[in-house]
């Protein structure tokens, strides 16, 4: 037993040593560059899937192993760790830092929810829409972390309001003179304060259920009480809506999630003559898919947890229930706490709009963009150029004056504070993702230099006898399954070189396979550990793993089905996917005899 506990404690260390030793015969026996690169690939893939080492640490291994195996010089490997992607990421993080610093994201979310109303079904759709919109520009994780406290406050206020109504009704029927049914924030003060003390609870099992309609459900891990099963289902529904919509919203823009950025950089590096993947083209192909997935996911989750009552949803002219009034009051109070919109928020919003407009208009495709002004240097200005331009303005534009008191008592301004500072930027910058992506680029370069990519493509060429739609479906399901147990960036970084080689080997437009695979990489909906938004909402204690599995399976099916639909409809109209393109490797070079 002591030995087993010892192994359990040091399992990651033993896994690293075991992986390195078990795979070592591959380069020793075969003694080819392909085998040596395959050894590096398998080691990195194992470490990424098991997280025996931190993902970013594993991403540094190509810088160590490729020079030792003679695959690439060290300086060439090092140059792969900082690309155009990293400049784009820096500019986007500058925007995200300012948005979160000045609470613009919270104002947008609350305003959108106030617009859709307080009917439970429409409220859920409002939260999903606002979360998805924010996730287009902020990281999925920070979006979920920002919106969940608002959702939790609304849910708890709804439960408290119903409890007060029934208590008041019972007092009325018992002969009390209190006939009012007004909801005051002070009701159930002890219980409300007890809920507010809960920040990140530990999930537990339900206990103490009664058979009557007035049953109390108590989560043994959090102490949160649900008066009825419907209350509990409502909390589950709201949590999952936030988790899934933060992921779905990230699909819409290249900067919305790291997997989109990784795909764009890999594609533009591998096929530099294409110049067809930019902010505008990606938005046009992914926005319809994201809207459909979001809407169908809303219907699925609503039906799964609360049922779908069309009569209740579309009723007009009827008085709001106490629950709806309480919900609206919470949202209104949260919005009022923000006060009137400030100068810093206005400037951030203007820069945000300017950045989006410059991205869309750089090279829209159907008309000449502003990049045509620099026709002498075609392809030099990219989306990262726009991101850097706007990002630098956040460090330049004044946010407020800094004052000091002179010995005479006079208050004078001596400097100003910009919209964001370097320390604030550093706290938001995901350096781990930057290194992880760099490691993926280095790994892809090594596969090309060693010939491993071409070898894999040749071995996969028999798949060319299958229908293209079936190949897309298989690759999409493979990616969707793998991303449930591995990180999304690691999954897409590992598979992009392989899928690119597959497309070249079977003479199919690479976009036909890479686009659906990239979108499906974000479909990590089944488990709490699949992605950070899932873990954040799970930590509030309303969900069990089985709840997320049942709900996530339906959303996964919806996502893959919509992607397959898009590949046969509107996405085909954006790109000529029916023929093998001239910007891809020629047929004579794509496969070996």
TrEMBL record:
Membrane protein topology class: Multi-pass membrane protein
Biased composition range(s): Polar residues: 208-221
Region (Disordered): 187-221
Localization: Membrane
CC annotations in GO: plasma membrane
Keyword Transport carried by entry: yes
Cited InterPro entries: Na/sul_symport_CS, SLC13A/DASS
Family membership noted in the UniProt record: Belongs to the SLC13A/DASS transporter (TC 2.A.47) family. NADC subfamily.
Name by which UniProt lists this protein: Solute carrier family 13 member 1 isoform X5
Species in which this protein is naturally found: Acinonyx jubatus (Cheetah)
Name of the gene this protein is made from: SLC13A1
């Amino acid at each position: 037993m002591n030995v087993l506990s010892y192994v359990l404690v040091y399992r990651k260390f033993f896994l690293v040593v075991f992986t390195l030793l078990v795979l070592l015969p591959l380069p020793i026996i075969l003694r080819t560059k392909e085998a040596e690169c395959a050894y590096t690939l398998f080691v990195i893939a194992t470490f990424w899937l098991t997280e025996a080492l931190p993902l970013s640490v594993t991403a540094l291994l190509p810088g160590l192993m490729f020079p030792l195996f003679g695959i690439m010089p060290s300086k060439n490997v090092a140059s792969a760790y900082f690309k155009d992607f990293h400049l784009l990421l820096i500019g986007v993080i500058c925007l995200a830092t300012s948005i979160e610093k000045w609470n613009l994201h919270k104002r947008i979310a609350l305003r959108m929810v106030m617009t859709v109303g307080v009917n439970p079904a429409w409220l859920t759709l409002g939260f999903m829409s606002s979360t998805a919109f924010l996730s287009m520009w902020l990281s999925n994780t920070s979006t979920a972390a920002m919106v969940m406290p608002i959702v939790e406050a609304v849910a708890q206020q709804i439960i408290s309001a119903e409890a007060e109504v029934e208590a008041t009704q019972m007092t009325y029927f018992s002969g009390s003179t209190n006939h009012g049914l007004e909801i005051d924030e002070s009701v159930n003060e002890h219980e409300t304060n007890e809920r507010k003390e809960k920040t990140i609870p530990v999930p537990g099992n339900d206990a103490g259920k009664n058979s009557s309609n007035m049953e109390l459900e108590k989560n043994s891990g959090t102490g949160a009480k649900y008066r009825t099963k419907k209350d509990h289902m409502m909390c589950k529904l709201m949590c999952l809506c936030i988790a899934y919509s933060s992921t779905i919203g990230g699909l819409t823009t290249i900067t919305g999630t790291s997997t989109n950025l990784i795909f764009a950089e890999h594609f533009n590096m591998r096929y530099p003559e294409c110049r067809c993947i930019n902010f505008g083209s990606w938005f046009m192909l992914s926005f319809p898919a994201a809207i459909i997935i979001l809407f169908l996911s809303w219907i699925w989750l609503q039906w799964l947890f609360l049922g779908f009552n069309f009569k209740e949803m579309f009723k007009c002219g009827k008085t709001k229930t106490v629950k709806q009034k309480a919900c609206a009051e919470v949202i209104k109070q949260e919005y009022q706490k923000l006060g009137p919109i400030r100068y810093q928020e206005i400037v951030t919003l203007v820069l945000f709009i300017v950045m989006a407009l410059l991205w869309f208009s750089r090279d829209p495709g159907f008309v000449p963009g502003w990049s045509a002004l620099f026709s002498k240097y075609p392809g030099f200005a990219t989306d990262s150029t726009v991101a850097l331009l706007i990002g630098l303005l956040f460090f330049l534009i004044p946010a407020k004056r800094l004052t000091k008191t002179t010995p005479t008592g006079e208050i004078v301004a001596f400097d100003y504070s910009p919209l964001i500072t370097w320390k604030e930027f550093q706290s938001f910058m995901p350096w781990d993702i930057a290194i992880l992506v760099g490691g993926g680029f280095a790994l892809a370069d090594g596969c090309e230099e060693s010939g491993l990519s071409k070898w894999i493509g040749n071995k996969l060429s028999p798949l060319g006898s299958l229908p293209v739609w079936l190949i897309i479906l298989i690759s999409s399901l493979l990616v969707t399954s793998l991303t449930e147990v591995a990180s999304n960036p690691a999954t897409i970084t590992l598979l992009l070189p392989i899928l690119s080689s597959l497309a070249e080997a079977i003479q199919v437009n690479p976009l036909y396979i890479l686009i659906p695979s990239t979108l499906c990489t974000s479909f990590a909906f089944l488990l709490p550990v699949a992605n950070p938004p899932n873990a954040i909402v799970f930590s509030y204690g309303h969900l069990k793993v089985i709840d997320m599995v049942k709900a996530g399976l339906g959303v996964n099916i919806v996502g893959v089905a919509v992607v397959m639909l898009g590949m046969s409809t509107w996405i085909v109209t954006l790109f000529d996917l029916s023929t093998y393109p001239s910007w891809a490797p020629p047929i004579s070079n794509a496969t070996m005899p």
